[in-house]
Amino acid sequence: MSDINSFGIIGGDIRQLYCARSIYEDGLDITVSGFGRSSDMMGMKETPADAVIERVDAIILPLPVSKDGERLNSPFAEEPLPLSEIINSIGKDKPVFAGMYGSADPAMFKGMNISCYSSREEFAAANAVPTAEGAIGTAINEFDGTLNGSRILVMGYGRIGRILSMMLRGMGAEVSVSVRRLKDAEMVRAAGMKPEFTDHPEGSYDIIFNTVPVLVLDARTLARCASDALIIDLASLPGGIDDNAAARMGIRVIHALSMPGKTAPRTAGIIIKNTIYNMINEMYKNNL
Amino acid sequence: MSDINSFGIIGGDIRQLYCARSIYEDGLDITVSGFGRSSDMMGMKETPADAVIERVDAIILPLPVSKDGERLNSPFAEEPLPLSEIINSIGKDKPVFAGMYGSADPAMFKGMNISCYSSREEFAAANAVPTAEGAIGTAINEFDGTLNGSRILVMGYGRIGRILSMMLRGMGAEVSVSVRRLKDAEMVRAAGMKPEFTDHPEGSYDIIFNTVPVLVLDARTLARCASDALIIDLASLPGGIDDNAAARMGIRVIHALSMPGKTAPRTAGIIIKNTIYNMINEMYKNNL
Amino acid sequence: MSDINSFGIIGGDIRQLYCARSIYEDGLDITVSGFGRSSDMMGMKETPADAVIERVDAIILPLPVSKDGERLNSPFAEEPLPLSEIINSIGKDKPVFAGMYGSADPAMFKGMNISCYSSREEFAAANAVPTAEGAIGTAINEFDGTLNGSRILVMGYGRIGRILSMMLRGMGAEVSVSVRRLKDAEMVRAAGMKPEFTDHPEGSYDIIFNTVPVLVLDARTLARCASDALIIDLASLPGGIDDNAAARMGIRVIHALSMPGKTAPRTAGIIIKNTIYNMINEMYKNNL
Amino acid sequence: MSDINSFGIIGGDIRQLYCARSIYEDGLDITVSGFGRSSDMMGMKETPADAVIERVDAIILPLPVSKDGERLNSPFAEEPLPLSEIINSIGKDKPVFAGMYGSADPAMFKGMNISCYSSREEFAAANAVPTAEGAIGTAINEFDGTLNGSRILVMGYGRIGRILSMMLRGMGAEVSVSVRRLKDAEMVRAAGMKPEFTDHPEGSYDIIFNTVPVLVLDARTLARCASDALIIDLASLPGGIDDNAAARMGIRVIHALSMPGKTAPRTAGIIIKNTIYNMINEMYKNNL
User: Fold this and answer.
1) In chain C, is it the N or the C terminus that has fewer CB atoms within a 10 Å radius of its CB?
2) Neighbours of D (≥3 Cβ pairs closer than 8 A)?
3) Residue of chain C with shortest Cα separation from A183
4) Distance from CA of A213 to the nearest CA of B (A)
């Protein structure tokens, strides 16, 4: 894998520690900074950020890079890590793999050798799995019946919708999936499920999972389709549900966000690692 | 359904309330006693036990009937319900459907028209579903990776083992099932999973679910197969794991018991109702 | 459905007869021409083409429209149906729904009110189901073992690849799917299958299904991955296999083409009907 | 595996040749007799029966042993193999593994060291897989629609019923299973399918598979449930359908028998081998 043999992970939550451990288990050199207050360092040793940058071939920054625009996103750091200092230390040449910038000003990274792992398609596809499992775990915990045998609607048939609906059917639920396009309706039917159309679902459901990041369940649709269903919204805020209308109708809505880090941080860390490996492989191929 | 048109539910936990509500939704008459301290009576009204017994065609007692041998098992009752008084009030003729007796002396029920719903096979089969889902919910919550893609061993291929392994495969896990008999090994293989033999599983696993109510994971087997696996034991206490040996080896064991009432009380209540309906149907047929 | 209440089907194979019957069962008026030599008219009566055109609101032409450029594709017609005569009779105004033109000169249809059902995406998606089932039927007939438990590679993860691989996994096969993109590899993994990359599959397989319409199994790849595998090629001719290389190596290749009409003509006919209904619904909406 | 290192296979159809080849691939010594007229000896050489018996540690006889009571069942033999001669040559001591006797008089085998592989439970369980696949292949060939999306009833939930219904659901069919016992109804429901009761199925179906070897579809039941369904009967003759009633009603019934040998002879041969290995392992353990 090219000439990158050592990684430094600076900042981030438990996913980055799992990422670090997985890199270590691959036999590569790994150093971490910003985890001094973590209760479990997974066998790694806290190292000052400067020493990390000095020592390694490539840096991995967290997802998101910053939540306030000033400090690196590093909840386990003993002292705040000022973003500008870290960036200065890294300099223009050292390869950096970062999550999305969050509140950080993109201009800060200008001229750096930086690329984003969290915007890659295989990153999103891989994270759809822990998202779907987290949604299922939430439903098992919050719904007073079993998923098996229940009438469940999954809104949206993108990555998460496809994986979630497959898992629910695999657990014996009666699954419908709402789509926008006729061809997707055929794919849903082929997978042994009932297609609905997102703008006017017609069935009656016990649980509705939404994966569509625009308002799909407005007051009118809620009134018709959800009476006493439990709604689990997986779409980023503000989500796809008219929460006020739902509250007025007494419909329970759970916003289940950031599932991968909560439900499967080890997997989430390995996904970060795999994505970075893919990026390095591609750079390496292009340089041949 | 014969000449039983009204039911009285005396004592029990939230499952009995769901059972009551479901009977009500079937259009039958239902009266409950022993739920005065419940935060949600599901639209029903607390009635004194004597009045309930007076009024209804058949009585439903909880599962178990008693936990201390003296009082009816009724965690939501405002005052303790002495078992002997309840039994005296019911008398010898009125049909009673009860869970297992628990700590109650079977002699107390002598001569009564009583039958047990929780010992019926379809009751156990139906409860295997919420048990399996509760096990999956526990694994999603406690395991730091995803079930999808993980190597999972289900020990035992009875009701729970069959349903649990099917659901796990349906979620995309790599499932092995341990069995005792060659013919069960063939059924496991046919279902797209890998058979193991319960007395000497050979694979390496991320998660092990045990459903077998005898010691299957002793120190020797643990040493070989489980290194850093998460073990979820669904078998009634003392369960199927040598907990001391596991603790010495640093293996994490979770005892996940009484899943249906915890994870899906509504389903658990409906299962009680359905089983009682089956019993009444059979009595009725036999009387024709 | 707009103002089209009667259909005329002229020419085509048994799929068009099933399409006709299904339209009839929907309560619409249907007349057919070109089936006089069919052994089973499914309760319909042969009518001369001119009379059909005269009588109906819309015409349905076969798939393909012509195989020789001169006559309508109508294997069951008692006399050849000259394409130019049919086209002249139809005229410029009457709505026509046709399959792809085949050998017919597109210029012939200039100025007509004609649209193509077989180029629509939901048509292709729906036909992926009978194609996948036909492939499975072929494998069951031709392979000397069971699919269950066999190592199977599906090349390509488009419509057919997705449905076929899901069905094979549902039958208990050990399924790998070859893809080109990393994100598809993640979707394959999420579905409980093993991803391969189409340009260098690494596993060893009992059966290989190809769905990719370019040369994917060249001599070099065949040599490595297929030794004594059975290969079933679903891609349109010339297909995705180097047949000469396969023959030299003694590898058996079956070209399984036009599956929907062969394996499930009723479904194929209903798909034609549904697609035409969709087209009419869209015209109607656009006219509102 | 004990002290049996060489096998002789005398008589039988292509399954026995596959069994022989699989034994050979395990590195054991194998000699065959009775296959001189086979077009493909799979690399083996025909040897006279006497020489085989002389040479090997154990003999494998076909399934069934005889179809006429006089000759060994050996459709590929150049000359008939008289059963009594074979038995005399084998003698009392040499271990023999045989299929069911068929028309052979059991008394002929008295005092021999013979045991039956085809009556073992794991043999029946393993053969349920090729039987189910053969049934699916038959349905794909004979039904004019797709299994995907069709309403299918599987009668009986024994080995074949369980595997067949799982495969059909895995292909996206809408599956019901008829059972006799309430607990099996719960297991069917848990598997995401609809339970029916065998004595009065209520649904309407496109395809009915029967696995129950007693008359389950009599005239009355046929009249109600099958109108224009395709019926595939997997139960041994006379099967579970009133064929005369079905004929009168114009219902199509296909008897699909002896599926493993027809649809997956290689698998069927390997099942024979595996069963014999199991028997030898058990003998060996018992002798320790």
Assistant:
1) C
2) A, B, C
3) C122
4) 24
Q: What is the pLDDT of residue D284?
A: 80
According to CATH, the superfamily of the domain at C6-118+265-287 is: NAD(P)-binding Rossmann-like Domain (3.40.50.720)
What is the identity of the amino acid at B129? V
**Is A122 touching C (CB cutoff 8 A)?**
yes
> Distance between CA atoms of B91 and B110, rounded to whole angstroms?
10
Q: What is the pLDDT of residue D125?
A: 97
CATH architecture of A128-257: 3-Layer(aba) Sandwich (3.40)
pLDDT at A10 over 60: yes
pLDDT in tens, C10-47: 999 999 999 999 999 999 999 999 999 999 999 999 99
Do the domains B6-119+265-287 and B123-257 sit in the same CATH topology, yes or no? yes
Is the CB of residue A68 less than 8 Å away from at least one CB of chain C?
Answer: no
CATH superfamily of B6-119+265-287: NAD(P)-binding Rossmann-like Domain (3.40.50.720)
CA dist list (Å): A270 to A91, A114, A160: 27, 20, 19
Question: What's the mean per-residue pLDDT of chain A?
Answer: 95
Helices (H), C196-249: 219-225, 243-249
User: What value does the mean pLDDT take over residues B164-187?
Assistant: 98
Chains that touch C (3 or more CB pairs under 8 A): A, B, D
**Mind listing the pLDDT tens digit for each residue in C55-65?**
999 999 999 99
Chain B contacts in chain A segment 126-155 (CB below 8 A)? 129-130, 132-134, 136-137, 140-141, 143-149
Structure confidence at residue A224 as a pLDDT band (50, 70, 90): confident
Which residues in B lie closer than 8 A to residue A126 (C-beta atoms)?
A: none
Q: Burial letters for D125-161: b for 16+ Cβ neighbours within 10 Å, e otherwise?
A: bbbbbbbbbbbbbbbbeebebbbbbbbbbbbbbebbb
Mind listing the pLDDT tens digit for each residue in B30-76? 999 999 999 999 999 999 999 999 999 999 999 999 999 999 999 99
User: Is the Cβ of C270 closer than 8 Å to some Cβ of chain A?
Assistant: no
Residue C226 has pLDDT above 70, yes or no: no
Rounded (5°) CA angle C91-C95-C99 = 100
| Cross-chain CB nearest to B167 (options A134, A170, A265) | A170
Q: Which residues does chain D have within 8 Å of residue C167's beta carbon, measured at their own beta carbons?
A: 148, 170-172
**Tens digit of each residue's pLDDT (9 = 90 or more) over A99-140:** 999 999 999 999 999 999 999 999 999 999 999 999 999 999
Alpha helix (H) residue ranges in B104-232: 121-142, 159-170, 182-190, 219-225
The H or E element spanning position C286 is: helix C265-287
CB atoms within 10 A of CB C183: 17
Residue A3 is predicted with a pLDDT of 83
Q: For residues C209 and C234, is the Cβ–Cβ distance under 8 A? A: yes
pLDDT value for B122: 97
Residues in chain C closer than 8 A to A185 (CB atoms): 122
Q: State the smallest CA–CA distance between residue B148 and chain C in angstroms.
A: 7
Does the beta-carbon distance from D169 to A192 stay under 8 Å? Answer: yes
ipTM (interface pTM): 0.94
**Interface size between A and B, measured as CB pairs under 8 A:** 90
Give the SS3 label for residue A31: strand
pLDDT at D2: 63
Of the options 2.40.30.10, 3.40.50.720, 3.40.50.2000, 1.10.260.40, the CATH number for the domain spanning B123-257:
3.40.50.720
Neighbour tally for B142: CB within 10 Å? 14
Q: Work out the minimum CA distance from D247 to partner chain C, whole angstroms.
A: 19
Q: Domain-by-domain residue ranges, chain A? A: 6-119+265-287, 128-257
- A200 pLDDT band, cuts 50/70/90, is confident
The answer to whether D172 contacts A149, with C-beta atoms less than 8 Å apart, is no
| Single pTM value for the model | 0.96
Cα distance between residue C53 and residue C11, in whole Å: 12
